[in-house]
Amino acid sequence: MIWNLGSINIDNFYEVPHLPAPGETLAAVSYGFGLGGKGANMSVAAARGAARVSHIGAIGADGRWTRDRLMEYGVDTPHIAQIEAPTGHANILIDPQGENSIVLFQGANVQLTEAIIGTALAEASHKDFLLMQNETNGQEYAAITAQSLGLRVVYAAAPFDSFAIERLLGRIDLLVLNEVEAAQLLEATGQSVEALGVADVIITLGAQGCRWVSNAGIKQFDAYHVEAVDTTGAGDTFTGYLVAGLDRGMDMAAAIDLALMAAALMVTRRGTADVIPDLKEIQDEFGT
Questions:
Q1: Are 203 and 178 in contact (CB under 8 A)?
Q2: pLDDT of residue 189
Q3: I need a surface site. Which of 71, 115, 134, 271 has the fewest CB within 10 A?
Q4: What is the pLDDT of residue 107?
Q5: Where along this sequence does the record place binding of K(+) (predicted)?
Q6: pTM for the complete prediction?
Q7: Per-residue pLDDT averaged across 85-99, rounded?
Q8: Which CATH architecture has domain 2-286?
Q9: Is 140 annotated as ligand-binding?
């Protein structure tokens, strides 16, 4: 079982001729909206990876449809609270090469109470997973609570904040971050990922795959090569599938391989949570 303390956003998508420069006004080619937020994306990915996942989060009245959508995608939703604040949202600009630029409004995502988090984790079992990102509040309380209950803590270090990671060191079992975030962490702390004392660290490398750093050493995994049209949500898809694989009993190498396939298929699609592939689609595409 995966307990995901995560953000829920309403994503607004704008296709643009190029990402705007400072001070530039740019007309969008098209507009769309859907379910997003790193937390919601990871919950959907984990559910589509055949894991049972319960989302812990908050929305406003304007976001009730996002809770319904998560439930449709197989995510348990009893611990998504509706509060007075507006639902978080993201404005996402996508250029013709599939690269993106994102502006976030946090909204209800950063108004979670310890009561909301504690009530959810009281239902957790030993060896369940707690998955977190840096788009909500309450991470330290959740990690302490999860550790006391014998849960395995997974932290996806995005959006990057070295202080957020440092507060959780000693409580993280698996850290997932990209190459830029790993460099930022080294600059902020003077410590390489190998020196953090985290049992397993995954550094995602985009089209170059990923690197797994553990007590046994460093292992490189190549990406599956596809024609990317939109990289939005690919990292979240990778992480959700990675944790789903581990929760289903896969070893780390097999879970990483599954996550790389899911992320590769994801970048061939435009959108976020609504277009995350399921296991059958991955099997059909890669013949697994």
A1: yes
A2: 87
A3: 115
A4: 97
A5: 230, 232, 266, 269, 271
A6: 0.92
A7: 91
A8: 3-Layer(aba) Sandwich (3.40)
A9: no
